[in-house]
Write a structure and sequence with these properties.
Distance between the termini: 47 Å
Order of helices and strands: HHHH
Structural class: mainly alpha
Number of strands: 0
Largest sheet: none
Number of domains: 2
């Protein structure tokens, strides 16, 4: 049984640019750059390890046809990646919705109390 715990940072995020959207975009670009750097290192390591064993992967990689299982695994990874990429947007939306719901609830209580 796995339990999912929402991880969020409380308080205001530091803002580096005049426009908050620019900050969010920068966060997304940095998340993608980090992911690309890790992927590059992993592919480079795989190719070097294979080359030491006399296996040239370049041609194999070009002709690879993923089966359904591989496609399913890749889609799961892609969804996790997009979740990390859009984290800041989701957090802001969650905060905004919680705030709106709080205001709506207070208004409802006022309306009922009349």
């Amino acid at each position: 049984m796995s339990i999912s715990v929402k991880r969020s940072i409380k308080g205001r995020r530091p803002q580096f640019f005049e426009d908050a959207e620019t900050d969010r975009l920068q966060g997304m670009v940095m998340a993608m750059a980090t992911e690309m750097a890790m992927l590059y290192e992993r592919v480079d390591t795989l190719e070097r390890v294979a080359a030491r064993k006399g296996i040239v992967l370049a041609d194999e990689l070009q002709g690879f046809e993923p089966d359904e299982t591989v496609q399913t695994e890749r889609e799961a990874w892609r969804q996790r990646f997009l979740s990390r990429l859009f984290y800041l947007y989701r957090e802001e939306l969650d905060d905004r919705l919680a705030h709106e719901n709080d205001e709506q609830y207070r208004q409802f209580l006022k309306d009922v109390a009349r």
